[in-house]
Specification:
Layout (H helix, E strand, L loop, with lengths): L13 E5 L5 E3 H19 L5 E4 L5 H12 L3 E4 L6 H11 L3 E3 L7 E4 L2 E4 L11 E6 L9 E5 H15 L6 E3 L7 H12 L3 E4 L7 H10 L3 E4 L1 H8 L3 H4 L6 E4 L6 H13 L3 E6 L9 E3 L13 E2 L4 E4 L5 E5 L6 E3 L14 E10 L5 E6 L3 E4 L2 E4 H8 L4 E6 L4 E6 L6 H11 L6 E6 L12 H5 L8
Parallel strand pairs: 1-11, 3-4, 3-5, 10-11, 12-13, 13-14, 25-26
Antiparallel strand pairs: 1-2, 5-7, 6-7, 8-9, 9-19, 14-15, 15-16, 17-18, 18-20, 20-21, 22-23, 24-25
Helix pairs in contact: 1-2, 4-5
Length: about 450
């Protein structure tokens, strides 16, 4: 059973604390529920590898289903939250899962025992080691996914437990979507440690979120830079229960002042702030900066998680990670799911960086067209392609905002801009639009991205 849950049949410590229903599921009960889910899923699809696509919501039933599928040797593809029916249908058509767990009907599937089961043609087989398919672009519903093997998922959970010192007494809330690799890693690592997870769908700015943390004695909180920007505007000293002493941050570089602010907040409580670096391609975490390195090393990405190593390729300047948690490869459709491990545990991150003598990593830039906005990973080439509906478009990474330049008389109207941001999984204030007579070009005819950054972005959503 995944994360050794089958060895916890007599463990009555709390595993899942559902803030919505008040349910407390101990490890013994979770072990039984996961085993029952695994049996139910196998009865639906029969023997052999199979793919389950589902909305992985923060509730006991969904989590038990997810763990049951993994324990049954199936692969799970979480659907991004808020993905519209059209986007979900496109992913279903592309990846052709054997089972779909969602409320709306699915064409070509029959409803049986709480799931939509594929009816008719038999899709190409899956690799037996495949465990997770995670989107490369946060919540935008990009069809390109990361293929993570079962060993990589379990290895990274153990690495995180060791790096953060997670023990059975820890209690972490689901402060990030479980379809997001960082959010899912919080669930996996705490279950691997025999700790507790507080299941809540409320955001960090909602009062019920803090009531849940106080009621269940939360000890840690995970966030991306946008989360901490929001928390900075709240009276966190009053909101946070006294048990909350550990903060973790990943999902992109955080402003030095913000890092310093939350390091000081944690220190006042006798706690700690862990700054981390990771990618979905490595099952979420690659490096962790020890809290003792703050504030002296604010801006550093950290040292490799246990069992992993970091280096910088002298030819390209790229940061290269080696470890048991590296993905098998990418997928863009069902036919790719039968492929085996194509990377052999070696990941070229595409980030530019340098290493100190003690192995501490500093990220100095990015060589690929990938932006991390509010913790969401966006392929700028894909964003540009989608924005062509409004005219000749170019996208740029503004750090904590996305810039879209259009060769047009004016940007689209406000409602269209808001809808476009929502489709990307961003708030409209995180997308800046600029209308120009013509996009800056290089002599090759390609967009001049350095000149693009120099344009007068006014910040209006």
């Amino acid at each position: 059973m995944i994360f050794g849950l089958d060895r916890r049949g007599n463990d009555h410590r709390p595993a899942l604390l559902d803030a919505g229903t008040g349910a407390c599921v101990d490890y013994a009960e979770l072990s039984r529920r996961v085993a029952a889910e695994a049996t139910r899923l196998r009865n639906l699809v029969g023997p052999g590898p199979a793919l389950l696509m589902m909305h992985l919501t923060a509730d006991v039933d969904a989590v038990a289903c997810h763990l049951g599928a993994l324990s049954a040797g199936m692969a799970v593809m979480p659907l991004p939250p808020g993905l519209e029916d059209g986007g979900a249908a496109a992913l279903i058509g592309r990846y052709r899962p054997e089972l779909v767990r969602r409320h709306a009907g699915v064409e070509g599937y029959e409803f049986r025992d709480g799931f939509w089961r594929r009816d008719g043609d038999v899709p190409p087989p899956l690799h037996p080691g495949l465990a997770l398919l995670l989107s490369t672009s946060g919540s935008s519903g990009s069809p390109k996914c990361v293929r993570l093997g079962r060993e990589a998922v379990e290895a990274n959970a153990r690495q995180i437990v060791a790096a953060l010192g997670i023990g059975p007494s820890e209690r972490a809330p689901t402060s990030l979507p479980l379809s997001y690799s960082y959010g899912l890693s919080v669930l996996h690592s705490h279950l691997a440690a025999g700790a507790s997870v507080i299941l809540t769908s409320d955001g960090v700015a909602a009062r019920p979120f803090w009531q849940a943390l106080a009621g269940h004695g939360a000890t840690s909180l995970a966030g991306v830079p946008a989360s901490y920007q929001m928390l900075c505007r709240l009276d966190l000293d009053s909101l946070a229960p006294p048990t909350l002493r550990t903060l973790t941050q990943a999902g992109g570089a955080m402003a030095p002042a913000l890092t310093g602010h939350f390091h000081a907040f944690a220190a006042r409580r006798g706690g700690r702030l862990f700054v981390m670096y990771g990618q979905t391609e490595a099952a979420a975490r690659i490096a962790v900066l020890p809290p003792g390195d703050l504030p002296g090393r604010i801006g550093a990405a950290g040292r490799a998680v246990p069992g992993g190593t970091l280096s910088v390729d002298p030819a390209t300047g790229h940061v290269v990670y080696r470890g048991p948690n590296v993905m098998m490869g990418y997928a863009e459709g069902r036919a790719d799911l039968g492929r085996g491990d194509e990377l052999g545990g070696v990941l070229d991150t595409g980030d530019l960086g340098r290493l100190d003598a003690d192995g501490t990593l500093w990220i100095t830039g990015r060589d690929l067209r990938i932006a991390k906005i509010g913790g969401l990973r966006l392929n700028l080439d894909e964003v540009e392609e989608w924005a062509q509906a409004f005219g000749h478009a170019a996208a740029m990474d503004g750090g904590d905002w996305l810039g879209l330049a259009l060769a047009a008389a004016s940007p689209p109207d406000r409602a269209v801009r808001q809808d476009f941001a929502r489709r990307l999984g961003l708030h409209s204030t995180q997308v800046r639009w600029l209308a120009v007579a013509a996009l800056p070009l290089l002599s090759s005819g390609k967009t001049d991205h350095r000149a693009l950054k120099a344009l007068p972005w006014d910040g209006r959503p």
